[in-house]
Amino acid sequence: MTFRRVLTTADVALKLTLTSASGLMPTFVLTLVPMVALTLALSPRLSHGAPAIQVQDDRGRTVTLDAPARRAVTLAPHVTELIYAAGAGGYIVGTVLGSDYPAAARALPVIGDGTQPDAERVAAARPDLLIAWQPSAAEPLTRVMDKLGVPVFYSDPLTLAAIPGAVERMGQLFGTEPVAQAAAQDMRARLDALKARYAGRRPVRVFVQAGLDPIYTLNDTSIVSDALRLCGGVNVFGQAPIVAPQVTLEGVLAARPEAVLAGVSRPEDTARNLAAWQEMGLPAARQGHVYGVDADALYRPGPRLIDAAETLCADLDRVR
């Protein structure tokens, strides 16, 4: 199987520069050659007439496949979840540490962690598609994939509303559109129901606990804050200049949150958080308003964040 390399603006500019600099072609040829090259490179059909697959990723790049992906490697747990939601989990041949949902994902071959994937393991998996999250972590590997002719797709949903579309795009990449579209339709219906139910509710001031010792939080650029907004919550550190700032206990107390939200790995973690905040003198904790949501569901920009949002909305109603 062969793959078509995505033609970027930089590629076009380089082609025009090199051709013009040679000084060996008439003007009409200088104009015609780049146009023909662009037409061939960007054509949505293969030479034998079968339609190519073209999908825009979250970096704005158009990624082209000659056929639906059948051997994908994922570089982030949320990507794995999106693919399973789209009905294409059986086409994943490698993933990173932490890709543990759904249960079937735990049996997938591991090619490293999300920050340092092993290029040799990835190449040995013979992928026909690499799906990454953060460019900074993936770029060394993507250079290897470029040499192998393997397309790279970036997935980074920044809002709850973007998650159904992310599932649909996975369906396009793997040729499982009916399953993906049905899943996305259900997700949109659930989000619409939350929006309708909680619109106009009294705002609740919330401290998002991303770490307790030391104390870390998240600002409004995080997808967690987007879930808060849907439920009528207000992030008390939403205007912080960085996405995950360290804050002081004095700062938290001064912000006067009415509730604390934390991602937890086990139910008993919520009880520990409640006791800790009560000991630190937080009024909201004295009233019992310290809530825990499954950390992986809350922090991953995947389908389960909608589950987390439903839980969060119900928790904030207890504060009102």
Automatic annotation (TrEMBL):
Top-level taxonomic group: Bacteria
Listed GO biological process terms: cellular response to iron ion
Cytoplasm keyword on record: no
Classification via PROSITE patterns: FE_B12_PBP
Fe/B12 periplasmic-binding domain segment(s): 71-320
Entries under InterPro entries matching the protein: ABC_Transporter_SBP, ABC_transptr_periplasmic_BD, Vit_B12_bind_prot
Entry keyword annotation includes Transmembrane helix: yes
Regions crossing the membrane: 20-42
Keywords: Membrane, Signal, Transmembrane, Transmembrane helix
Protein name: Vitamin B12-binding protein
Organism: Achromobacter animicus
